[in-house]
Write a structure and sequence with these properties.
Blueprint: H1 2-27, E1 35-46, E2 52-63, E3 66-76, E4 79-89, E5 94-105, E6 108-118, E7 123-134, E8 137-147, E9 152-155, E10 159-162
Length: 164
């Protein structure tokens, strides 16, 4: 009788242990995503108002919802944006620009190290040092917001030089 009771206890303990292990496996699932690399690529991003951005880069790395391009050249509505690197979030339709960021337009030139582009709202923002040339005016500041259509530039902590 003791032997039978020991065997039944062992079977019950084994079943409950296997159920516990299965539950742990479900809770600790590891999701893997493949990474893709392409060279000399061009992509298009469409904003809310139908504004289309063309983006070219030397190398494209795709990992899940993020796309990273090296040596970036972007343009839309007469504006050109250059940067060393851009990381595009395909779910939020935003991009983080890093390294030697330049924004050029008709009579407008902005230079900074980091910026964020919101393709849906047609805005470019940044929190670092910024240098802006518009016509013959030169402005230095810290932090900026550029709305592309209609053009509107807001710069924080401004120091300006005007040529008349």
């Amino acid at each position: 009788m003791k032997t039978l009771l020991a065997h039944v206890s062992f079977v019950i303990l084994s079943i409950s242990s296997l159920a516990y292990i299965d539950r742990l496996r479900e809770e600790s699932k590891i999701f893997t995503e493949e990474m893709s690399i392409a060279r000399q690529v061009g992509i298009k991003v469409v904003g809310e108002g139908g504004a289309e951005w063309s983006i070219e880069g030397r190398e494209l790395f795709s990992l899940g919802r993020l796309v990273r391009l090296q040596s970036v050249f972007m343009w839309s509505r007469g504006y050109v944006v250059k940067a060393d690197q851009v990381v595009i979030d395909r779910h939020t339709n935003t991009a983080d620009l890093k390294g030697n960021v330049e924004i050029r337009g008709e009579a407008l030139f902005v230079k900074t190290e980091e910026a964020k582009v919101n393709f849906l709202k047609d805005t470019i923002t940044g929190g670092g040092d910024v240098f802006l040339w518009r016509g013959t005016n030169y402005v230095e500041g810290r932090g900026f917001r550029v709305r592309l259509k209609p053009l509107r530039v807001i710069i924080g902590s401004v120091r300006a030089k005007h040529d008349i």
